[in-house]
């Protein structure tokens, strides 16, 4: 791998749920430090694509590589052998995921939430990860909340903690699935600000979002999906401001 090798490559990925093709021949390549935004109507396959990259779902055809490694399978000669659960768990550490719902551990404090993964999964020394956890809290602007419980925080604050918790595992790529969709409108901005800072720091990100302003400002590249397919892809100005495909145009007109 060199600096310009993509962090994530999806090659002709198909994912079916029974007869439904949730992803149909989807190909996408995300370079280091890029912010790949994915937009599209409900049911178009956006979450499924992230879930396949994160191995929460198994693909039916095609291949996905993360940080240069084929996920889910090992090549043996011409054959593909499924990886063990332990190997899949190791690969999943390369991707950090932030969901629409914050999914924090409600019986743990903010700091405990952040250090839980590094402590129990990575088995790193507590002193080291507490220091890193505090630095992450600082980064998301919530240092003073270290001993609070999630229920004491606003939705926006909880989502910022969820981002810090994912970052604590030092992923190679961060996947965001509509991270602001469940928030009251006045709390959206603080989460987008954290994501903006993260992008500026060079983190590779794949972001499913309906926040077209954020996409226009921060995305390196935008994909519009519909019915399990990539309909249009390009720089944000092209896809969001002067889309070529009628389906993209209709979607953007409806969202704005
Ligand atoms: P989006 O995130 O763009 O709204 P999804 O990826 O969630 O779309 O869903 C794509 C399609 O796959 C939808 O038609 C959805 O109903 C279907 N789907 C998603 N997950 C499952 C599942 N676990 N079982 C059956 N169908 C599913
Ligand atoms: Mg979704």
Automatic annotation (TrEMBL):
Origin: domain of life: Bacteria
Keyword entries, A-Z: ATP-binding, Nucleotide-binding, Transport
Entry keyword annotation includes Nucleotide-binding: yes
Domain ABC transporter: 8-252
InterPro entries to which the protein is assigned, alphabetical: AAA+_ATPase, ABC_ATPase_HisP-typ, ABC_transporter-like_ATP-bd, ABC_transporter-like_CS, MetN_ABC_transporter-like, P-loop_NTPase
SMART domains, per the entry: AAA (SM00382)
Name recorded for this polypeptide: Amino acid ABC transporter ATP-binding protein, PAAT family
Phylogenetic lineage: Bacteria, Pseudomonadati, Pseudomonadota, Alphaproteobacteria, Hyphomicrobiales
């Amino acid at each position: 791998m060199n600096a310009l090798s993509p962090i994530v490559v999806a090659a002709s990925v198909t994912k079916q749920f029974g007869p439904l093709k949730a992803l149909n021949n989807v190909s996408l390549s995300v370079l280091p430090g890029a912010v790949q935004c994915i937009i599209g109507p409900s049911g178009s396959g956006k979450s499924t694509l992230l879930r396949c990259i994160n191995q929460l779902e198994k693909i039916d055809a095609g291949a996905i590589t993360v940080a240069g490694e084929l996920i889910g399978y090992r090549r043996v000669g011409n054959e593909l052998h499924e990886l063990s659960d332990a190997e899949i768990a190791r690969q999943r550490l390369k991707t950090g995921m932030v969901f629409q719902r914050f999914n924090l551990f409600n019986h743990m404090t903010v700091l405990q939430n952040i250090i839980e993964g590094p402590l129990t999964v990575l088995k790193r020394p507590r002193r080291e990860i507490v220091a890193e956890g505090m630095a992450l809290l600082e980064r998301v602007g919530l240092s003073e909340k270290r001993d609070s419980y999630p229920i004491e925080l606003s939705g926006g604050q909880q989502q910022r903690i969820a981002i810090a918790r994912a970052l604590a595992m030092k992923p190679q790529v961060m996947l965001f699935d509509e991270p602001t969709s469940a928030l009251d409108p006045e709390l959206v901005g603080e989460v987008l600000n954290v994501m903006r800072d993260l992008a500026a720091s060079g983190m590779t990100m794949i972001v499913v979002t309906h926040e077209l302003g954020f996409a226009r400002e921060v995305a390196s590249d935008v994909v519009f999906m519909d019915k399990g397919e990539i309909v249009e892809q390009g720089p944000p100005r092209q896809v969001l401001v002067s889309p070529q495909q009628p389906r993209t145009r209709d979607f953007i007109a409806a969202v704005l």
